[in-house]
Every structure is written in C-alpha cells, then in structure tokens.
C-alpha cells in the first residue's frame, strides 16, 4: 500500500483545540480570537482592509526587497509559469505587493491611506519552532504619511493590540528601536563599516565574509557569539545620521516617551529588507528562543519610486501570527471560550421536527447552539453536552415534547432545571445567551 500523502514540510494545518496534535501549533480558536481582536484594534485606528494576490512577478521582490537580501538570495519559492514562461514567486512578505497595487491603481491619488492585510507568506527556510515555510502575517501599512507622528502611532497601535491580547509590555514583549537614516548616510556608514570589518576579516565567519561587500549592515545582526566583540565595536550608523534624520528619530522617541511606552535603542537593529530608512523597530520576546521577533517594521520612503511610482513616504510592519500565538499559548494567557451556549439533546429521532424550529429561533436571537447529531443514548448525548463546554443542555425528551415544552438544564454552576414552551423560544433566548 502506498504511503499517505502528508503536508509539505514547514507548512502547517491549523486545527481546533480538541484535536490532540503532536506539533503543539496554536489552535484555530486562538487564531479566530486573535483575528477578532486585531480587527477591533485596527478599526479604531482607521485602518482599512485590503487583499493582494499570493503570487506576484518575481521581479517585484527582486526589485523591491533588494537582490542581496536573505529572502531574495535563498528563501523565495519561485517558478516558471508553464503556460507562458513568466517568472513568478509565492509572496515572501506583503509590503512589495501592496505598494505594487497602490502604484498600479494610482490608489493614493485622493490622499494617504492606512491599510492592513493578513495571510500566508512563503519562505524556503529550515523549519523549526516559530519558523515555517508557509507562515501567516498581519501586515499594516500607513501610506503617504511622512511621520514621525504616524511612526509613533503605528507602534502605539501594536501596544494596544498587546494589551487587548493580555500581553504585558516590558514583561512578555519589549520594543526595540533604531534609525537607519537616509541612503547617503547609510552609504557613508557602509564605507566606514567595510573598512573596519576588513581590518577584522580573520574574525568573520563564512556568512560574514560573504556579506562583507554585499550587505555588511546585516553582519551587525549576526547571532554568532564568536563575532559579538567585533560587531560591538563596529562603527554605528547612528553616528552617521544628519540633523534631519536625528530630528525625525528624536520626534518619534518624544511621542513614545509622552505615551509612557518604554523601549530600548538598539543601534544594531537593521531588518532584513533593503527598503527601510529612518525609523525601524521590532517587538521581541525572550520566550521563543532565537525566533524572538514577533513583529518588525519601519519606514520605507523609497519603495514607491523603486517600484515605478511617485515618491511616497510610508511606514508599516509585519507581525508573525504563528509566533505570536505560540507565545500566548506558552504564557497560558486566558483566551475567551469558544464553547456553545447550548447543547441540544435529542433522545428520540422523532423529536427533531419539533426541536429544529426551536433551535433556529434561538440562533436567530444570537444563541450559539450545538445540536447533537448521530443518535445515541440519553447518557452518551449528555456526556457530549458536558464535554462541549456548553452552559446549558436543552433536553427534548418525549414527556416534555408531549406537553409542548423543552427542559433547560444548567451544566455549569448550581442553577435549577426549568422547562420552557417550545413556541416562545425568542422570549427565553436571552437567558441562554452569553452576555
Ligand atoms: P527573522 O529574523 O526571525 O528571520 P525576519 O526579519 O525575516 O525575521 P520579517 O521579514 O521582518 O522577519 O517578517 C516579520 C515577522 O514575520 C517576523 O518578525 C516574524 O514574526 C514573522 N516571520 C518571519 N519569517 C518567519 C517564518 N519563516 N516563520 C514564521 N514566522 C516568520
Ligand atoms: Mg528571516
């Protein structure tokens, strides 16, 4: 017999919590709760939802992210369209696609936009906890704003999201902040950095040697302990920033300070894409090992032009949903229950024609009703009702039905069992609904 087909390595199913899975990935309940929470937060800050395709022309990412970034060099799922020979790529991130869409539709013609999207991204990485080949991001972009007010607002919005999810800033998640200045400032720093690193070439690892002339800034981001002394003493980009860049950075800081948000300035924070300038930030946690960045973003004022659009200032971030939910799982934070309000017990199949209109009437009033299906004894149905987490069992027993009634039995706490008329469900629905 042939082996069963399995999911592609590094690409995960998201399943209900009742499924006992080996890989300990977050449940779909946690996922839904996160989505509901984030929609509420984004709406309060005036962000509008949008979607872009998962497949884009390869050139979009090569041109948008930069040829010598990790993503473009080795992480993209690219293929040739067999119908017409086009070079295509599964999106590794969301920003390039959004900017492409904005330019294509001249979408900022009527003024700036605050946008968000969410969905799967694809990177050919070594799968491990918190690092997958298909993973999901919340992606938020404020387009047409030069900042620093919007830079700060977007960071404070993430803080609000943490608060609503029950994450404590400073304890579970911390903010790291840096400024990458402008391209000329980076060029001057880059020259100084290369000269410095060439003087310490014997201490660089393979990756470091490879990046010395292609992407030396990324060397500062190394996780290799043997290179920490070298990168610690390297020239800092911060020391190459001009007056305007420093003023922008200080203005962002002043707003965050006034809002009481603590952060650490990390002069080695660089981010993986070439499009960033000025403000960059990461929200990090110590609880997920080396996959500690749950959210990263910054300003990318040059990307519109790079992709053929008019010069347009912009700032945004990507948040790794699997990583965040792993963190929430690990911390054991309280998540609202997804249990039904009511579990309907039908000891006799003949009860269905009388029960169904009652269940429909309750649902019309907003009650979450799970109907027992598939028969079985009263006892086994009652066990299922209990396991469902419902607060009430509705028992459509023959005696009650004969009297035109249904029994309402509390399953949690010590409330009394009552009977209710079948034909006035709308009137007693409120007693069953979660407040
Ligand atoms: P890392 O340094 O961990 O590789 P990155 O800088 O490549 O992250 P970004 O491109 O900034 O990550 O993506 C934003 C967020 O998306 C990350 O902070 C992380 O939470 C999440 N993320 C990135 N790559 C993966 C992945 N392969 N699997 C799961 N989540 C990911
Ligand atoms: Mg990466």
From TrEMBL:
Its EC number is 6.1.1.21. Pfam families: HGTP_anticodon, tRNA-synt_His. GO terms for biological process: histidyl-tRNA aminoacylation. It comes from the Bacteria. Residues 34-347 form the Aminoacyl-transfer RNA synthetases class-II family profile domain. GO terms for molecular function: ATP binding; histidine-tRNA ligase activity. Keywords: Aminoacyl-tRNA synthetase, ATP-binding, Cytoplasm, Ligase, Nucleotide-binding, Protein biosynthesis. L-histidine binds at residues 93-95, 123, 137, 141, 271, 275-276. The keyword Magnesium does not apply. It catalyses: tRNA(His) + L-histidine + ATP = L-histidyl-tRNA(His) + AMP + diphosphate + H(+). Its main location: cytoplasm. PROSITE patterns: AA_TRNA_LIGASE_II. It is an enzyme of class 6 (ligase). One of its GO terms (cellular component) is cytoplasm. It is found in: Cytoplasm. Homodimer. HAMAP family: His_tRNA_synth. Belongs to the class-II aminoacyl-tRNA synthetase family. This is Histidine--tRNA ligase. It comes from Roseateles chitinivorans. The gene is hisS.
């Amino acid at each position: 017999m042939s082996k069963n087909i399995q999911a592609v390595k590094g690409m995960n199913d998201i399943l209900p919590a009742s499924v006992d899975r080996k890989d300990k990935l977050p449940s779909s309940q946690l996922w839904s709760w996160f989505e509901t929470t984030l929609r509420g937060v984004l709406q309060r800050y005036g962000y509008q939802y949008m979607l872009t395709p998962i497949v884009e022309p390869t050139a979009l990412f090569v041109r948008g992210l930069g040829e010598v970034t990790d993503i473009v060099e080795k992480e993209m799922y690219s293929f040739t369209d067999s119908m017409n020979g086009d070079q295509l790529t599964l999106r590794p991130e969301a920003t390039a696609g959004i900017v492409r869409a904005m330019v294509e539709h001249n979408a900022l013609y009527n003024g700036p936009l605050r946008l968000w999207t969410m969905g799967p991204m694809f990177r050919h990485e070594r799968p491990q906890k918190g690092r997958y080949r298909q993973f999901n991001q919340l992606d938020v972009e404020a387009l047409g704003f030069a900042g620093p007010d919007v830079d700060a607002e977007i960071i404070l919005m993430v803080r609000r999201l943490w608060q609503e999810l029950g994450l404590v800033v400073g304890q579970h998640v911390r903010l790291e902040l840096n400024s990458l200045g402008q391209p000329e400032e980076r060029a001057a720093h880059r020259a100084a950095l290369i000269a410095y690193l060439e003087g310490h070439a014997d201490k660089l690892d393979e990756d470091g040697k490879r990046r010395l002339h292609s992407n030396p800034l990324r060397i500062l981001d190394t996780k290799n302990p043997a290179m920490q002394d070298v990168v610690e003493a390297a020239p800092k980009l911060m020391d190459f920033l001009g007056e305007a860049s420093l003023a922008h950075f200080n203005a962002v800081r002043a707003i965050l300070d006034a809002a009481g948000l603590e952060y650490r300035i990390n002069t080695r924070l660089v981010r993986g894409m070439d499009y960033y300038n000025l403000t960059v930030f990461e929200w990090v946690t110590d609880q997920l090992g080396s996959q500690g960045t749950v959210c990263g973003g910054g300003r990318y004022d040059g990307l519109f032009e790079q992709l053929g659009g008019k010069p347009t200032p912009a700032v945004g971030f990507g948040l790794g949903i699997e990583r965040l939910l792993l963190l929430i799982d690990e911390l054991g934070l309280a998540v609202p229950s997804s249990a039904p309000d009511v579990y309907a017990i039908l000891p006799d199949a003949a009860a269905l024609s009388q029960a169904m209109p009652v269940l429909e009437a309750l649902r019309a009033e907003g009650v979450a009703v799970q109907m027992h299906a598939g028969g079985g004894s009263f006892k086994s149905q009652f066990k299922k009702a209990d396991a469902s987490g419902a607060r009430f069992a509705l028992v459509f027993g023959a005696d009650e039905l004969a009297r035109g009634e249904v029994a309402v039995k509390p399953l949690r706490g010590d409330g009394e069992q009552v009977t209710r008329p079948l034909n006035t469900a709308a009137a007693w629905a409120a007693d069953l609904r979660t407040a």
